[in-house]
Design a protein that fits this description.
Helix content: 25-40%
Number of domains: 1
Strand content: 15-25%
Number of helices: 6
CATH class: Alpha Beta
Distance between the termini: 61 Å
Number of strands: 11
CATH topology: BirA Bifunctional Protein, domain 2
Radius of gyration: 19 Å
Strand order of the largest sheet: 7-8-9-10-6-2-1-11
Length: about 300
Amino acid sequence: MERVIVEEQAPPRLLRARWLGRVAYREAWALQRTLADARAAGALRDDQLLLLEHDPVLTLGRNALQAHVLAPPELLAARGIEVVRVERGGEVTYHGPGQLVAYPIVALLSPDTIGAPAAGVGVRRPLGVRAYVEALEAAMADTCAAAGIGAGPRAGHPGCWVEAGGILPRKVGALGIRVARGVTYHGIALNVTTNLADFELIDPCGMPGLRTTSLARERARAGIPGADADAPPDTASVAAAAAVFATALARRLGFVLAGDLPPGAGAVGERRAMDALVEELGMPSPALAVPGPTLAQVGAS
């Protein structure tokens, strides 16, 4: 009798999306580190994707130059804008209303672990850093395309660019990650209806003269009906972009997307779910503040 050997198939990897609305930077930073530690330790089974926006804040990568913050401290203090140095790669960047921020907590594997469970993270699919970064850039480009804007990577300059190969490249999305114990955190920031004047506070990405743009600005430039180059920051626009980005990233990574996305997702309920998850993991993290009526108007209940 012929013997048939059935090879065990690894289960599909899940990417669990979580729309959190407006979150203070330090709260989101602490949450990322907690989830990354739990993922590396094997206490958290699935990869996570935190989707949110921040109040105005400047962040510096671990090797970024303070000199690229152009605004004097007294101006930043008067506007309530904190400068935070973090452990991600990259230079200085701005986060603020109208900007989609996505923090994937994803376990990476080296190619030599194919076919065997990975120590600590319990997954089998290999994913290298370069492929992961390319997936982030491609998902940003997909989000731009859904808004009617052509964009993509630019050689030697991580992120997402409009007219990347032209004489006037404009950066619409920034990228900076950290990998610790085989797990990624930090991520991307895509300008949707961001107030671009706030980028004058810095040399974006440490590049004096860099042209920063937004989907709102590019849609108006392209003459798309209803587009407004000066549209004010709008959480609804961020939520809509978050749903597109999450779907695109899962597809680019070859993962199965789970969780609720805008417009059906509820930021308040998701924040409470995250607090419960952190408590269940038994790992310290500040509780996520429940947004008030001026925050996260889309999916806030």
